[in-house]
Amino acid sequence: MSLPASLPSVADLNAWCRNTMGEHLGMEIVEVGERYLVGRMPVDKRTHQPMGLLHGGASVALAETLGSIAAVLQVDRSKQACVGLEINANHLKGVRSGYVVGRAEALHIGRSTQVWEIKIRHEETDALVCVSRITMAVIDLPAAKPAQA
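== Hotdog fold thioesterase ==
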């Protein structure tokens, strides 16, 4: 599978995320490449669990956001879309404040599926916080129907 001719800018990708859960949680895309995507998320009251640590669900939301965006960048968006089939996460270290940074890297880009690994690290210490893997289905979009005369 070949990469689309050009990648959107970081600003374009952040605009895609407006009015989404990612924006609500403070996620932002910071770097985009041919087979990877990097984003960050604050560890604060929006992403804490009751004990004051980063909520595992927030880590999974960051992983799914990065994996999903990275996947759709690998297809012709006028003809195909990518949807999540499965995601898993191993939570390795607690974080109370600052930012976490996730890097999604392609493990497999096929015609009908993609597999992405997302490693989430604490921005200040570089400690590995979470490792996630998402499997995406590549689906064909319905063909546009010609206008009726």
